[in-house]
Design brief:
- Helix content is 28%, strand content 21%.
- The protein contains 10 helices and 14 strands.
- The strands form 3 sheets. The chain has an 8-stranded mixed sheet with strand order 4-1-9-10-11-12-13-14, sandwiched between helices. A 4-stranded mixed sheet has the order 3-2-7-8. A two-stranded parallel sheet has the order 5-6.
- Helix 1 crosses helix 8, helix 6 packs across helix 7 and helix 8 runs antiparallel to helix 9.
Length: 345
């Protein structure tokens, strides 16, 4: 029997990369005609970069297909992803005259509001991925008909992970969920799951969605997640981890990265949810979506500090013992208040 050709990467992503500017420590949102000073500011690549960095920091071979502007924002995002975080950008391109999209995130009271400016990408994902690499998984943001590259990746054996975004029309058309036929994992948040299914109970909504996608994980922000796998009959209800949250930007993407890691590692459903839950909890203690993602040293430090406590909520995390580095792991970079800071001559 012939075996499948080896994969070039673990995960393939496509989507827009934003420059994120994150203000924290706000006493309140500004009222019309007023000015509010923030005590903290961070800058980092955002959008699909949140997921790319979170995956790469878990040492998954990650490749990203995206458009980048030929401006300083694009320089910063490209350099951070390719050189600092080791995300492969061989399927991405730079475009002169098209500026990088920007999001300003205002973090307040464990939530955030955002303002974004940008223009449509000058190139489609299919144009960037005319010959998609062989990968173990793809993570797709579903808001329209699947692109050809997604179908090609699936035909080549990739697992398909999907999420959806906020519906600005507030119609939450159920037919969008039907586009998920053929996907393997779906990770909506509570609002998305309930509104798309017209249900008022997360468990009922998840089971209904699992009739379309076998594995469904409904995240509950800081309240953990509920998951069901209709193929195996597994079910998991994991509570949140109590942390001092600074900025929730990108926490859902970090959760998705953790769940992807556990899935590719072949873990039981409950361990996958716990690990994803932990990754997201660690991320909200730092600025920004992408550069807040934990590395293995962060996870190991948390377990050494808290994991051995006699706490019922932490008892399920003992599977980490066999995963974590005991010495010599590298720390990760966090978001800074500026971009393009040059060293002294």
């Amino acid at each position: 029997m012939s075996s499948q050709p080896p994969t070039e990467f673990d995960v393939l992503l496509s989507g827009p990369v934003f420059l994120d500017l994150i203000f924290t420590g706000l006493p309140q949102l500004p009222e019309s005609g007023t000015e509010v000073w923030a005590s903290g500011l961070g800058s980092s690549p955002g959008g699909i970069a949140n997921l790319a960095v979170a995956l790469a920091r878990l040492q998954l071979r990650t490749t990203l297909a995206s458009a980048f502007g030929e401006d300083m924002y694009g320089d910063f995002c490209w350099d951070t992803l390719a050189n600092q975080e080791q995300v492969d950008l061989s399927h991405s391109r730079r475009f002169y005259g098209w500026h990088s999209p920007v999001t300003v995130s205002l973090a307040i009271n464990r939530d955030r509001s955002m303002v974004t400016h940008g223009h449509p990408s000058p190139v489609t994902a299919d144009e960037l991925l005319t010959d998609p690499p062989r990968v173990r998984a793809c993570f797709v943001h579903v808001d329209h008909e699947s692109d050809n590259w997604v179908r090609t990746a699936k035909a080549n054996g990739a697992l398909l992970f999907a999420d959806v975004g906020w519906d600005p029309t507030d119609q939450w058309r159920p037919e969008l969920i039907q586009q998920l036929h053929g996907y393997d994992v779906f990770l909506p948040n509570t609002v998305e799951a309930l509104r798309y299914t017209r249900q008022d109970d997360v468990r009922v909504a998840a089971r209904q969605l699992s009739e379309v996608v076998p594995t469904v994980v409904v995240t509950r922000a800081g309240g953990g997640a509920y998951a069901v796998d209709s193929a195996t009959g597994e079910e998991a209800d994991v509570c949140g981890i109590n942390v001092a949250a600074m900025d929730p930007t990108g926490a859902g993407d970090v959760f998705g990265a953790g769940f992807t890691y556990g899935t590719l590692a072949g873990w039981p459903l409950v361990d996958r949810v716990r690990f994803a839950n932990l990754c997201a909890a660690l991320s909200v203690q730092h600025f920004g979506g992408s550069l807040s993602a934990p590395g293995w040293c962060d996870i190991a430090a948390w377990w050494r500090h808290l994991g051995r406590r006699e706490d019922e909520a932490l008892r399920g995390y003992h599977f980490l013992e066999d995963l974590l580095p005991t010495h010599g792991c590298a720390t990760v970079r966090r978001a800074s208040a500026t971009i393009g800071l040059r060293g002294r001559p």
